[in-house]
Write a structure and sequence with these properties.
Layout lengths: L2 E8 L6 H17 L4 E3 L20 H13 L2 E3 L3 E3 L8 E7 L5 E6 L5 E3 L5 E3 L12 E4 L2 E5 L8 H9 L4 E3 L6 H19 L2 E4 L3 E3 L4 E3 L3 E3 L5 E4 L5 E8 H10 L18
Parallel strand pairs: 1-2, 2-3, 10-11, 11-12
Antiparallel strand pairs: 1-17, 3-5, 4-5, 5-6, 7-8, 9-10, 12-15, 13-14, 15-16
Length: 273
């Protein structure tokens, strides 16, 4: 499929899991009704709490509900992220799941980089207190194209995105719960840079609203391989839509072959060259 419509959902997720899930199911129906082939949710879409008691196995009850709705509506569903049970420890995984229109799980990604940071207002966030980092870079070839996976803080590590590009990624998902203090200065520049330097589409649905530890920035966006923001959310929960055109992506890569012009005789990501 060389062209398809993607929907990115900006949510104000709280700690009522059932309510959040019902909203997600409604958003899937709306996205399908409005012509989307794929719908993508933000980080921690199912519940904001990081407590281990809310974690689930994958597949499990939440992925079953989302998969059934994907099948019912005939749409691809990226579940944003959810807490996944870690059988080897107390810390849970922050995990993305992609389901096809048949309701099958086709990819699972565990967030690689924990968000441990002192914010500009002096407050601190330590995701590593509760989350076990993943250990695998994930790309998957589908009828939509080659898709890559990242979550929120991962955006600050350009080598991850370059490796996914080297693995063939054309579209990269970045669901997020990005903070207002850092978001106003870093969110858009980093997303556009990752799109431009790798010649990929970036799908970045973000949380919005006042959370327990910080205010989420919103400004969910979809960015094309030239770095143009082709869809942007307003300051409320909503769905944004954009067309993904892989022929356009191919043309841009031919005109700007910077990835092919790398000096791999001087520097290289040796494991992936």
């Amino acid at each position: 499929m060389r062209k398809f419509i993607v929907a990115a959902v900006q949510m104000d997720t709280g700690n009522d899991k059932n309510q959040n899930l019902q909203q997600m199911l409604q958003y899937i129906e709306e996205a399908a009704r409005r012509g989307a082939d794929l719908v993508v949710f933000p980080e921690v879409a199912t519940i904001l709490s990081e407590e281990a008691e809310h974690a689930e196995s994958i597949p499990g009850p939440t992925t079953y509900l989302l998969a059934q709705k994907a099948k019912e509506c005939g749409i691809w569903v990226h579940g944003g992220s959810m807490s996944e049970i870690n059988p080897n420890g107390l810390r849970t995984y922050n995990t993305s799941v992609l389901m096809n229109p048949a309701g099958e799980i086709v990819a699972k990604y565990r967030k690689l980089h924990n968000f441990d940071m002192i914010l500009p207002d002096g407050s601190s966030v330590r995701e590593s207190d509760n989350k076990e980092p993943g250990r695998q870079i994930v790309t998957v070839q589908t009828e939509l194209g080659c898709l890559g996976f990242a979550i929120c803080y991962d955006m600050r590590f350009p080598e991850l995105f370059r490796i996914m590009r080297l693995q063939g990624a054309e579209v990269i998902f970045l669901p997020a719960n990005f903070t207002l203090p850092t978001g106003k200065d870093h969110w858009e520049p980093l997303l556009r840079a990752r799109a431009i330097e790798n010649g990929v589409y970036i799908i970045a649905p973000n949380q919005i609203g006042v959370k327990e530890k910080f205010t989420a920035y919103g400004n969910s966006m979809i960015i094309d391989p030239w770095g143009t923001v082709i869809a942007r959310a307003s300051e409320r929960p909503e769905i944004i839509f954009a067309e993904i055109d892989l022929d356009y992506l191919k043309q841009l890569r031919e005109k700007n072959p910077s990835v092919n012009n790398r000096r791999s005789d001087i520097y290289q990501i040796s494991k992936y060259e």
